[in-house]
Amino acid sequence: MSARSLAISLSARPVTAAADSFKVPVHRRDRRSGPLPAACRLEALRAAGFNTLLLPSGAVFLDLAVDPDATAAVGVRAEAPSPAEAIRRMFGKTCLLPLARGMDAERLICSLLVAPGSLAVMNRRSAATRDNVEAFGGSILEFLGPGSQDPAADLPFKGNLDEARLERFLVGPGGKRVAFVRMEASAELLGGQPFSLANLRAVSRAARSRGIPLVLDAGRLAENALIARRREPGCEGLSPAELFRAMADLVDIAYLPSRESSLPGGGAILASDPALFTGPRAIAASPADFPASNEGSEPDLEPLAADLRASLDEAAGVRSHDSIGGLAGRLLAAGIPVVLPAGAFGLHLDAKDFLPGLRPADHPAGALAAAFYLVSGIRGRERGGLSAGRVRGAETPSDMELLRLSLPRRASTLPELRYAEDRLEWLHANRGLVGGLRVAEESAAGSRHSGRLEVAGDWPERLAAAFRADFGDGW
């Protein structure tokens, strides 16, 4: 099927009741009108400074840049136990601190544990994690396992922390400087890659035996548990909720951050030791440090509890993971580089391999996000140098450059994904036309999520011209 006929089918093909029950809950323009023409998309990109996150929603046909899962949980009110008690039971933690802004959770933990000169050891950091640790004078060490940063390596647990390296470090002179060890479930900047239960046990043993807190970013723990249940020997007999709890039992502090549009009720910090809550609870009440956290009434935990319950739906989780894996397999068969194996969050494209002519300083993932929007109207999420952050004014190449296309836990049978496949195939065949990006304007905090970019040369115009030559001016 041609791309043009696929585009037409978006408004012509009826959606069955079965398909509609697993409808992708993404933001989209009116399906009857289809995507904006390429010329309009190019103008929208220029106005957004070639940062696809700044595109207005009306210019986006399918928004696969954000995590849409939480939208399915909104409005679903549960009976007893209370939302707070339900979350405590899921994690097996007695203490819970609700937060109006989940993004504050990690910084609150760092304010309690990090001191000037201390170290935080982890499997993978984000730009926000680095900023939070450095804000209190600490530094980060990443102890990734072999092959974790190779998108083509089909390894089951790329999110594992190198436990042997951790042991060697902790027995050395640097071990006394470690403030905490952090594990991120379904590590996003690795392509949604999970850690194994066995690895978490080893890390927990190494940290706890030395009195070092083990902290878990549990925002995607359910997805991590579902994948581990399918890949790790000995886990197949556990239910998703049991495996979730087994992983949570191995950590001292777990937190639920809110990323993008997920976790609509904000976030939370959980622990078993009430003493660990003295710092976060005191600082959370300080409007000078966290002006939007816990102001006014207690944050509503029901959307967060509903999201967690939905995330442990095994049938939906399996369908979603199979959908991601199937899409990855089809693209790989077409020669399009994807991260293997399929992880959580969605499909991850390897932008370095997709655009081999670009240097790391050209921000391949950002360029691929802009180019893909230009030829499809679909917004994906850059997960490379722009997401990883940098020291203001200094370029720090990212070891991985990925474009994420978020897919929900509920598998989709709608034609939009085939449309996305078709446009990716066309773009890959014309990838030689795509050039790089450079930072033109940063936000005040040094983040480029809300900054503006500029193109190197006239490659967007040439790409749009090639697209119109194949598809006509109406697409």
Would you kindly provide a written description of the structure presented here, covering whatever features stand out?
The longest helix is centred in the last third of the chain and has 20 residues. It is built from 18 helices and 14 strands. The protein is α/β, with parallel strands linked by helices. The chain has two domains: 224 residues, Aspartate Aminotransferase, domain 1; 229 residues, Type I PLP-dependent aspartate aminotransferase-like (Major domain) (Aspartate Aminotransferase, domain 2). It is globular. A seven-stranded mixed sheet has the order 2-8-7-6-5-3-4, sandwiched between helices. It has a three-stranded antiparallel sheet with strand order 9-12-11. The chain has a two-stranded parallel sheet with strand order 1-10. The N terminus is likely disordered.
Tell me the total number of β-strands. Answer: 14
Assign an overall shape: globular
Profile the largest sheet.
7 strands, mixed
Kindly report how far apart the N and C termini lie. Answer: 16 Å
Into how many domains do the coordinates divide? 2
Helix content: 25-40%
The CATH architecture of the largest domain can be named as: 3-Layer(aba) Sandwich
Strand order of the largest sheet: 2-8-7-6-5-3-4
Q: Look at the structure and name the CATH superfamily of the largest domain.
A: Type I PLP-dependent aspartate aminotransferase-like (Major domain)
Radius of gyration: 22 Å
- Beta-strand percentage? 5-15%
Question: How are the secondary structure elements laid out?
Answer:
Elements: H1 3-12, H2 17-20, H3 38-47, E1 62-63, H4 83-91, E2 95-99, H5 105-113, E3 119-122, H6 127-135, E4 139-142, H7 163-171, E5 178-184, H8 197-208, E6 214-217, H9 221-231, H10 240-248, E7 253-256, E8 267-271, H11 278-284, H12 302-311, H13 314-333, E9 346-350, H14 351-354, H15 364-376, E10 378-379, E11 381-383, H16 385-388, E12 402-406, H17 416-429, E13 437-441, E14 452-455, H18 459-471
Parallel strand pairs: 1-10, 3-4, 3-5, 5-6, 6-7
Antiparallel strand pairs: 2-8, 7-8, 9-12, 11-12, 13-14
